[in-house]
Structures are given as structure tokens and as C-alpha cells.
Amino acid sequence: MDSQTIVGDPDASLEALLNGMYAQLKTWSDPMHRMGEYAGDNMMIRGSSTDAFYEFLSYARTPNNYRLTQMWDSGYKAIAQASNIIDMIDEGQSAEIDNKIGESYYVRGMMYFYLTRAFGRPYYQNPETNLGVPIVNGTPDDVLNMNFDDRATVKESYEQAINDLKKAEALLALDKTSIYASKEAAQAMLSRIYLYMSGTYTAPNTEYAQLAVDYSNKVINSGKFSLLPRAQFMKYNTFIPENNAETIFAIKRVASEFSGFDHYYGVGGMYANLGGMGWGEMYASAKYIDLLNETGRNDWRSDSYNMIDARAAFIAPTYSDDGSEVFRFVKQDGPNTLNYVQAKITRSGGTITAKEGDDTYTLMAIDANQETYSILYKDGKTYSGVIDDYITLNRVYPQFYITKASLEGEESHLHSPVISRLGEVYLNRAEAYAKLGNYGDALIDLNTIRERSIVDGGYTTLDADNAGTRIDKERQLELAYQAERSYDVFRNGKELTRHYPGPHNQFDDISATDYRVVYYIPQDAINSYPGTLTQNPTQ
Predict the structure, then answer these.
(1) If pLDDT is split at 50, 70 and 90, which confidence band does 12 have?
(2) Where are the transmembrane segments (predicted)?
(3) What is d(CA 288, CA 282) in angstroms, rounded to the nearest whole number?
(4) Rounded CA separation 500/42 (Å)
């Protein structure tokens, strides 16, 4: 579009420009999700894959990865389009135009944050010297003789994101639905950014923790959003974002963008096969299932369906039609390997035996009402597990399908990625309160989220010894499959452990200082960059 035409008649052009900017988020959100979620510990894959996303899961980092390039390119296209709107359209013409400019600032600030957290080291690790991302705001006047600066520092990159989001907060005054940027969306993102800057539990930065509280307060006290009641929350993924009282901002997808088997290629397509759509090759990890079952066994069987933790409703095991009962547990299958066992059981009076091959075991009750038992296995170890219907396997792994990124409007894998929702903001404030030493208020916020999912499951105490563990556990349970987990682990200086079945290196624990915590700058971006673009360390 000719720039003079846009400047001469901004009302006629702005809507098209904004649509183009938002459209970049659709392309960007796919690799963004895979980079954030696959690098965590909420999911497993059935086997190694030739797809570029397998590097995210296996931590086999390379710069020649088309999905990395897609995330980088779409992110910077959104930044460029937002910047061009900001540069070409004058503020103060009308509330409507100012709001659209504010939407552009929001998208630009959000992109800088997401790019920096993927390609720059956690904030607590020397942000003044560690490299973030290049700050390139808009199309240069002379595109034939461009020469851009190298990557800004992490601190400078965060400052760019914060300044943009504060400008968005000031300009966004209209009430629109949650598929558009809003004042509260900017405030929610600022609450998260300041939380990322708030240090670790053992070495908190109280200035930034207080700012995380302040921006969380703005969102919560706005009264524009509300936590879904438990029964509705269990169907969160099925609601379109405009009709979801808890969603603050989501990237809108519609079914017409897909055709036929294209539904395979949404992020939910790897997590489940629904109505014949999807690959169904990634499942909830045994670690995540255990976390869901920590306060009581969640039973997915149709004749005894009972969710102790509401978040278990986003898991859908693929039960066999023959109704065979098994004792399922995870065993040590070698010095560095864990695997599932589903041993068929026989009931005889009050005695239950499980048979695996030629070996028969008598189960010992842990909680007979919940059908949790232990077994003294032939390797001399005692394992605990559950009596359940047989779950069909993909290779050797039971298929614990994940539906949280599927079924929007009941449309197989349609999903509008959630960027911010009120549940996260409460958890942001809980963590920030804890880092300020205000454990009383932190406990109230933590239990607000926990007791929605687990009836009467709130904690009675929170203190310096347990706050980090309990708050991080709740974030893992609540924000699973929203691309937050790996970043949450590393920003607090913790170690990622993935001691559960799957083809990944199960006992390769990733520390927050490991070079693999950050992704390489895509080689294509370095090759095409008009200037020096420094690569991340390779060891």
C-alpha cells in the first residue's frame, strides 16, 4: 500500500494494516507454542521425528531450523507492520485511531518480549551484557543501503517491550473483545514481564516484583474479566475467545482458515487424533499425570469419570473398547530408561493379581477406594500405580491425548492460542507477593486458582521454604500447553527434569545456565541481516 495514500486517508487504510499485523501472529503462534511447550516437561512424544520441532524437545539445538526461522520472521514482520502504522499515523485524531495505534504498540511490545525470552538468556543472568534481540522498528527510509545494529542486550530488549506496552496502555481506551489488544492485555503482559525480571525466589528483585503486583492489580481490579467456575473451566478450550470471560487476549483462528486435513497441522494435531483429524503423537507426560493425581486419583473411565483436579479434563486417554483391566505403572527399564507397564489383572475376592509375561504379582492397596496400588516388582523395586482400563499404545506408550489446544467450537483442532488470561494474572501476583515476602496475600491468590480446580484443595500455609515449589507447581498445572513451562523453570534459576517415559534423554537434566536454554538465532536471519547479527554460544 502506498504510504501517502495511508497518511492521506488513515481511516480507510488502518483496518487493513491492522488485519495484516494480526495475521502475522497466526503464523508466529505455531512455532512459538512448540518452542515453549516442547522444551518443557508436560508432554512426551511417541518416538524421534524428522520434523524440525523435535530439536525443541530433544535439546539438540541447531541454527538451521525452519520453525525457528518462522518464529523469527513472523515476529519481525509483526514488529515491522506495527512500527509502520506507528510511524505513519499521527496520534490525537480520534479515540478510534489512537486505539488502533495502541494495538500496534501492544503487538510490537509483546513480540519483543517473546523473541527475547526465546533467544536471550533469563533476565536474572546478567541482563546488562547478555544479548537479547535486534531492535528494528519499521522500514528504513533507505532500504537499499540498510545497516542495522547488532542485537541489543537483554535489558535493552526488555526496556523496548516495556516502553511499547506502557504506550499501548495509555492509548488503548476502547472496549473491544479479547481477540484485539486492550489496555488490560497490555497490563497483563507487563505483569508477566516484570515477573520475569523479578529474580529468583532465593535472590528476588523486589522493585520488579512490586511492579508485577501493581500491573496484576490493574487487571484484576478492572472488573472486566472473571475466572470461569470450575465446571465451565473444564471446557475452557471449547469456548471461542470472544465468549470467554477469563480470556484477556487470544490470537483468533477460524475454521475457514483450514480445509480438510489441514486441521492436522494445528498445534493440537500433534496432541490428539479427534474425529479422524490429527497425528496424535504427543501425550501428557507421566510427570504431568502424577502432578494431576497428587491430591487424588483422576479417573477418566467413562463409567467412573471423576476429575479431582479440573485440569485433568484436558487429558483424554484412548481406552480400548474391550474393557480389559490393567495395573499401570512406570518401571525402571534400564539404568537410564523408564517405561510404562500395563499388566492385565485378575480379581479373586479381595485379592488382585497382575500378570506380565510369565510373572504374576499380588497388588498391595495404597487406597483401594481410588484403586491405587503398589507392586513389588521382579527387579526388587516397589512401584505404585493405578488399576485402569487398558489404554491403547502408540509404539510402547499409552496415549494420554491432550485436548487443551483443540476443540474450539467443537471443531477438531481449531484453537485460538491464549496469550493472557486472568488465571495467569492471579498466579503472577502470587509469585510476586512471595518474592516480596508477603506470603499471606500470595497464599490467597494461589488458593484462588488451586481451589477452583481442586475442591477444598487449598494450602493452609505458605512460607519461604515451600512458596517456590507450590507456586511453580500451580503454574505448571494451570498453564500447561500454553507455551509457558520451560521459560518458567529457567527464569527462576531452576533445573528442568524429565524423568519419565519417552524417547528423549530421560536423565539429561537441563540447568538454567545451560547454553541450550536459549535458541540459536536462525542462520537464515544472520545470512540476510544488513549488519552484524551475533549468534548465541554453541557450548
Answers:
(1) confident
(2) none
(3) 13
(4) 10
Q: Is residue 411 a contact partner of residue 402, using CB atoms and an 8 Å limit?
A: no
Please tell me the distance from the alpha carbon of residue 247 to that of residue 234, in angstroms, as a whole number. 14
The candidate with the shortest Cα–Cα distance to 486, out of 499, 496, 478, 477, is: 496
Can you tell me the distance from the alpha carbon of 146 to that of 139, in angstroms, rounded to the nearest whole number?
A: 10
Q: Single out the residue of 418, 340, 348 nearest to residue 383, CA to CA.
A: 340
61 to each of 75, 103, 267, 482, how far by Cα in Å? 20, 34, 21, 22
Beta-bridge partners for 20: none
Taking the C-alpha atoms of residue 171 and residue 250, their distance in angstroms, rounded to an integer, is 20
Residue with cell 500451580: 474
Measure the CA–CA gap between 202 and 492, rounded to whole angstroms.
9
* Burial of 29: CB neighbours in 10 Å, binned 0-12, 13-18, 19+: buried
What tens digit of pLDDT does each residue of 232-277 get?
A: 999 999 999 999 999 999 999 998 888 777 778 889 999 999 988 9
Q: Which string of b and e fits 73-82 if b means at least 16 CB within 10 Å? A: bbbbbbbbbb
Q: Residues 159, 164, 166, 167: what is their CA dihedral angle, to the nearest 10 degrees?
A: 140
- 138 Ramachandran zone, left/alpha/beta (phi>0; psi -120 to 50): left
State the first-to-last Cα distance of the chain, in angstroms, to the nearest integer: 45
Q: Alpha-carbon distance 87 to 442, whole Å? A: 42
d(Cα 311, Cα 467) in Å, to the nearest integer? Answer: 21
pLDDT at 216 over 80: yes
What backbone phi and psi angles, to 5 degrees, belong to 470? -70, -40
| DSSP classification of residue 418 | E
Q: To which H or E segment does residue 388 belong?
A: strand 382-389
Question: Over the chain, what is the mean pLDDT?
Answer: 95
In this structure, are residues 199 and 395 in contact, taking their beta carbons and an 8 Å threshold?
A: no
Q: Measured on CA atoms in the order 89, 92, 93, 94, is the torsion positive or negative?
A: positive
Question: How high is the pLDDT of residue 1?
Answer: 66
Q: Secondary structure of 149-208 in the HEC alphabet?
A: CCCCEHHHHHHHHHHHHHHHHHHCCCCCCCCCCCHHHHHHHHHHHHHHCCECCCCECHHH
Rounded CA gap, 378 and 373, in Å? Answer: 16
CA 32 remoteness from chain centre: 9
Q: Which helix (H) or strand (E) holds 102?
A: helix 95-119
| Cβ pair 34, 53 in contact under 8 A | yes
Is the per-residue pLDDT at 55 higher than 70?
Answer: yes
User: CA of 131: how far to CAs of 156, 181, 190, in Å?
Assistant: 9, 28, 21
